[in-house]
């Protein structure tokens, strides 16, 4: 680092994204991207929007906000569109956390939460999952913290029910509870309807996973209009034009083709179930994932060994070198053909 970096950032440990090696062509099962391209309607809309890139985009994202609101069954003033869901999560740390409002989240979860806390100078508490990697709502009762829960959780793939989330909301009426639903479309139930009953709930979602738009960077949050107004205050103080024209247009295009999204979500879920059954038959232990990835371990090989073997075969999965989960690998669900390649590679290892 240079001698000019502010002292408050000298100890900052950045988020580590999934690797993107260029030394060969890999089957990428490490970053939870969709194996399918975005809707043709989204592709066409983005291409048409490119003709006007000399103009600033609409800072209010009015048309897209209205379509998302309609999809979620809320009003436009209950929605904020952001540059990926990471942006709205950062906004939430900025808006709802400070020295009097520290953060709390599971000890095994999305790695960006601790980074956002450190970036914003927010103290945080990590709450252990139970022995089955589940979030226990009772552990969050009466906290004097702003709460962040990925639901379904990553990398475990497990989800709370809306009733369990409601329990957390009821036990923390004076603190904001952020439910990060990046993977909700693959088999979990959304908590968006709860925003009408709880003014302390913010639900975030993304177009990166189920809508095949990871490269476009588009997310959104849903909450009561006062919470959304708070977050808009942060947005307009940092980056009013946070969604570019092509991304905005692609978002409208994909929302106009909801059947395409639902079809591919179903395909991913079916491939997940088939892959899980095949892995279990090979002696793997897995969590009951409801996401577009599996979290798996084998008693004969640690997680790093599995990761390295697969990488040598041209297949990337994610390994987290963290106590409690270092025996596991996280495997994104790809196409059926990609998953067959994964299974064949693992069979060669096990039959060695």
Describe this structure in words.
This protein has 352 residues and is of the alpha/beta class. 36% of the residues lie in helices and 14% in strands. The chain contains ten helices and twelve strands. The protein has helices spanning 40-49, 62-72, 84-96, 112-119, 162-171, 225-238, 245-255, 258-281, 303-312, 336-351; strands at residues 27-28, 79-82, 103-106, 124-127, 146-150, 177-180, 201-206, 219-223, 284-286, 293-298, 315-316, 329-332. A seven-stranded mixed sheet has the order 2-8-7-6-5-3-4, with helices on both faces. The chain has a three-stranded antiparallel sheet with strand order 9-10-12. Helix 8 packs parallel to helix 10 (336-351). The longest helix has 24 residues, at 258-281.
Offer a quick outline of the entry.
This protein is an alpha/beta fold and 352 residues long. It contains 10 helices and 12 strands. Helix 3 (84-96) crosses helix 4 (112-119) and helix 3 (84-96) crosses helix 6 (225-238).
Topology summary:
Layout: E1 27-28, H1 40-49, H2 62-72, E2 79-82, H3 84-96, E3 103-106, H4 112-119, E4 124-127, E5 146-150, H5 162-171, E6 177-180, E7 201-206, E8 219-223, H6 225-238, H7 245-255, H8 258-281, E9 284-286, E10 293-298, H9 303-312, E11 315-316, E12 329-332, H10 336-351
